[in-house]
Every structure is written in structure tokens, then in C-alpha cells.
């Protein structure tokens, strides 16, 4: 069964304190791994898509990396406005989700950055 | 990027009533739309996949007769929660896949802003 597990569940950082969020996954052939940001009461906002092990993508203070078993979202020198829930999702290459674009989400990591 | 409009953003209703949530793709055609629900501090759980002009595909454990999905056009999908009960209270989110795009370019999967349903 395809599964996504994120850790930690919650993370509190001081402004400027860099850290990483983890997303571990098991999937029957990975088509893509996605990172989204979600603010309270809002829909997810797309951040990155990673397709193969070794791939890295960056956007401002965020950098996403991918291995065969997990992905990391590195946050460098975070600011209070980076506070949000970060969601990881996978799309399988074969089977129902690979044919429809269905994403399987992790439970998210809620990040709080204090000034 | 493309915009997915979801309406209403918040609805409060009495137990036993039905509630309709709309999901519109504003500047693109969406052959496939997905409906998720999210409980507080939990992940998004896929409820169903709807394709324009055909019946929706429901995930295991989701009641088809309770959560009616209609995808009548390439820009509109609706979710109707029939005979709502307090346990149906949740955050419902739709997402849309751009027509003609390959699955691999899933960054073209855009999400609506969500609907918070509270059933009293």
C-alpha cells in the first residue's frame, strides 16, 4: 500500500534557525513527489515537484531533495512568514493513482517560526 | 498559475440538510477534478475523482449516496453532502487537473481554497 509519513508533526524555530522536514514514502513506483504549503483555512499551495532520486529544487529559503525512500524540505534562515503546514504527497507510477493523477498526502508538518 | 475557485468558503447547516459545494476552474479546462476532506491537524484524504461527463470514482469507505459528485462541464464540479450530520463537519478541498497535461506535470494540479463545513 502506498504510504507517506512526515516528521516531525510540529516544529518550532526561532527566526534564522535553519532546519529540515522529513517525508518518508513507500510507493509502487514513484511518478512524482510533491511539496505543498498550506495556511490555516486555505487550500494547499504548490511548492515543488521532484521526480527522481538525487533531484533538488530551490525556491527562496526552501530547498527540496529526494532519495529513493524519502524527501527533505530544508528551510534556511526561516522568517515568521514561513509559518505554515507543509504537506508532502506522492503519485504512483502504476495502478489507479498513476492513471488519474491522484496524490497520496502525508499528515503534514506544522512549522512555527518565532521572531 | 491557473485559478481554482471554490465556493462557499464556509457553511454552517442544520443536521439533516444538504449542502452543495462548487469547484470551478476559472481560466482553464479541467478534465479531472479531485475532492478531498481534511480533519483538523490531519492530512488530506481523497474522497473521489470526477471526470467530466462520467460518473465519479469513489475511494474505499466513501459513501456514494451521501457525497454526490457532479462534473457536468470542463470547468465545474460540485460536491453535495446529503443529509449532513455533525460527523460530516470537515474541511473540503477540490483540485483540478489541467486538460491535456501529462500526469508527470502534476504541478498543474491546482487546489481550491477549501470549504469549512460545520453541521450543527
Describe the structure.
The complex is a heterodimer of chains A (115) and B (120). With 115 residues, chain A is mostly beta strands. Chain A has one domain: Immunoglobulins (Immunoglobulin-like, Sandwich). Chain A has one helix and eleven strands, in the order E-E-E-E-E-E-E-E-E-H-E-E. Chain A starts with a strand and ends with a strand. The mean pLDDT of chain A is 91. With 120 residues, chain B is mainly β. In chain B, a hairpin with a 5-residue loop joins strand 5 and strand 6 (57-58). Residues 102-106 of chain B have low confidence and may be disordered. In chain B, the strands form two sheets. In chain B, strands 2, 4, 5, 6, 9, 10 and 11 form a seven-stranded mixed beta sheet that branches. Chain B has a four-stranded antiparallel beta sheet with strand order 1-3-8-7, with no helix packed on it. Chain B contains no helices and eleven strands. The interface between A and B is medium-sized, with 28 and 30 residues.
Amino acid at each position: 500500500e502506498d504510504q507517506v509519513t512526515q516528521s516531525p508533526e510540529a516544529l518550532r524555530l526561532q527566526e534564522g534557525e535553519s532546519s529540515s522536514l522529513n517525508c518518508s514514502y513507500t510507493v509502487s513506483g514513484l511518478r512524482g513527489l510533491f511539496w505543498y504549503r498550506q495556511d490555516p483555512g486555505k487550500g494547499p499551495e504548490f511548492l515543488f515537484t521532484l521526480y527522481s532520486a538525487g533531484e533538488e529544487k530551490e525556491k527562496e529559503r526552501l530547498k527540496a531533495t529526494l532519495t529513493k525512500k524519502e524527501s527533505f524540505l530544508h528551510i534556511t534562515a526561516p522568517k515568521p512568514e514561513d509559518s505554515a503546514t507543509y504537506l508532502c504527497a506522492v503519485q504512483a507510477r502504476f495502478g489507479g493513482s498513476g492513471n488519474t493523477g491522484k496524490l497520496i498526502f502525508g499528515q503534514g508538518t506544522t512549522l512555527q517560526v518565532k521572531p | 498559475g491557473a485559478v481554482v475557485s471554490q465556493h462557499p468558503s464556509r457553511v454552517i447547516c442544520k443536521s439533516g440538510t444538504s449542502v452543495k459545494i462548487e469547484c470551478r476552474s476559472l481560466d482553464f479546462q479541467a478534465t479531472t477534478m479531485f475532492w478531498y476532506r481534511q480533519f483538523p491537524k490531519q492530512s488530506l484524504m481523497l474522497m473521489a475523482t470526477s471526470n467530466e461527463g462520467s460518473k465519479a470514482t469513489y475511494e474505499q469507505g466513501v459513501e456514494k449516496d451521501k457525497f454526490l459528485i457532479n462534473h457536468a462541464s470542463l470547468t465545474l464540479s460540485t460536491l453535495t453532502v446529503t443529509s449532513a450530520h455533525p460527523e460530516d463537519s470537515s474541511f473540503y478541498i477540490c483540485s483540478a487537473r489541467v486538460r491535456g497535461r501529462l500526469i508527470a506535470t502534476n504541478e498543474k494540479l491546482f487546489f481550491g481554497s477549501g470549504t469549512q463545513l460545520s453541521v450543527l
